[in-house]
Design brief:
mainly alpha; ABC transporter involved in vitamin B12 uptake, BtuC; two-stranded antiparallel sheet; 17 helices; 4 strands
Length: 396
């Protein structure tokens, strides 16, 4: 009688044992941490509903959506910048300058109300995009760190806004333009529609176009992206230009809502925008984040501000909710993801934290391989790195 034995299953290379004591490596903890913005939003809404009964009225909820639309639109562009491991501190100044230019144009416009409003919108978008282009060129061409470059433009653009307006607000009497911030399409406010359209465009860019994959690649590891053939400078330039465009759109909503250009307004607005992005789970180190989290983060910021106002909390106490160091932010969604071997530049601050287990081994091996190519063949020889790395990876 012949005995048929089961064929043994092929076994791959032994996996390193999981590191002990790393609670954040638990998948359940990771999933729970990703729900942090949702939990925070529910807790805040419940607290304010109890403390301020008018919080749950339809009129107030509509007001919250209108408030969040300004921050959320600017946060879409800020998300793209932070995904490439950059930072934009000039958002508030871009909003002030764009609104001031639009108000000045409408004050001296000789066209009809409708056509003047259209031209003002175009001018605002061009100014916002130009400011983003300036930031991008400083980072990519002048090689100025994004933090320093945008900090400089924050001051310069604010000064230009104050200079062209003589530091006075510019009132707007064009009702066609003010409808952008005050009008409705049926029951839906126009700012909410603009916010939805901006998020839709951002989603298409990040998840349906090649540039989106390149944005995540550059943010995950700028060196690996460059050696893989990605033109990192173009990706960075696109990110800052898109952020400037989004800031221009946010400025349109704010200027139309206030019916005036405020050259001294939007001070600290960039901190709310960055907080919305980071609270939503986007990593300040780049390469990880989603627009859905950005929207939830912006909603948390708006609900917190609205609730404190309804509770008659003094303004100077409300300032405590704002971040004071953009680089000091973290969120539960970021705590849940330990850095892997490809989450940073070899020259960056994360090169000394390559991960653990197999990830740590691959990081060290890849770093040695790349450095050897640099020493033996120079910068041109590094172009062979991606193929050589793929060929030398262990087969499973």
């Amino acid at each position: 009688m012949t005995t048929i034995s089961a064929r043994p299953k092929p076994t791959g290379p032994a996996q390193p044992p999981p590191a002990k004591g790393r609670i954040l490596d638990n998948p359940n903890v990771k999933r729970l941490a990703q729900l942090g913005p949702v939990v925070a939003l529910v807790l805040l809404a419940g607290f304010f509903a109890i403390q301020a009964p008018q919080f749950t009225t339809a009129g107030n909820l509509t007001n919250v959506l209108q408030q969040v639309s300004i921050t959320a639109v600017a946060a879409v562009g800020a998300t793209v910048v932070i995904l490439v491991a950059g930072i934009d501190l000039s958002v508030g100044s871009v909003v002030a300058l764009t609104g001031s230019v639009a108000a000045l144009y409408l004050q001296h416009a000789t066209l009809g109300a409708g056509m003047s409003a259209v031209v003002a919108v175009i001018v605002s978008l061009v100014v916002g995009t130009g400011c983003g282009l300036l930031n991008g060129l400083l980072v990519t061409m002048a090689k100025v760190p994004a933090f320093i470059a945008t900090l400089a433009t924050l001051t310069a653009l604010r000064g230009i806004a104050l200079l062209i307006t003589n530091s006075y607000p510019i009132s707007i009497k064009n009702t066609s333009f003010t409808q952008i911030g005050l009008g409705k399409v049926g029951p839906v406010p126009i700012p909410v529609i603009i916010m939805g359209a901006t998020f839709a465009v951002g989603y298409v860019i990040l998840h349906r176009l090649k540039i989106g994959r390149r944005i995540y690649a550059v943010g995950g590891n700028r060196d690996a992206a460059r050696l893989s053939g990605i033109r990192v400078s173009r990706v960075l330039l696109f990110a800052f230009v898109f952020a400037g465009l989004c800031a221009g759109i946010a400025s349109l909503i704010l200027t139309a809502k206030l019916s005036s250009g405020q050259p001294a307004g939007s001070v600290g607005f960039e901190l709310d925008v960055i907080a919305a992005v980071v609270v939503g789970g986007t990593s300040l180190f780049g390469g990880r984040g989603r627009l859905a989290g950005t929207f939830l983060g912006a909603l948390v910021i708006a609900v917190l501000g609205n609730g404190l106002t309804l509770m008659n909390v003094p303004f100077y106490w409300q300032q405590m909710r704002r971040p004071h160091r953009p680089r000091g932010h973290s969120s539960p969604a970021q705590w849940s993801s330990p850095r892997s071997c490809w989450t940073g530049s070899l020259e960056g601050s994360r090169a000394n934290d390559p991960g653990h287990g197999t990830a740590r081994y691959r990081h060290a091996r890849g770093a040695r391989h790349l450095q050897a190519l640099r020493r033996s063949r120079g910068p041109a020889g590094c172009l062979t790195y991606p193929g050589a790395w793929q060929d030398s990876r262990p087969r499973r």
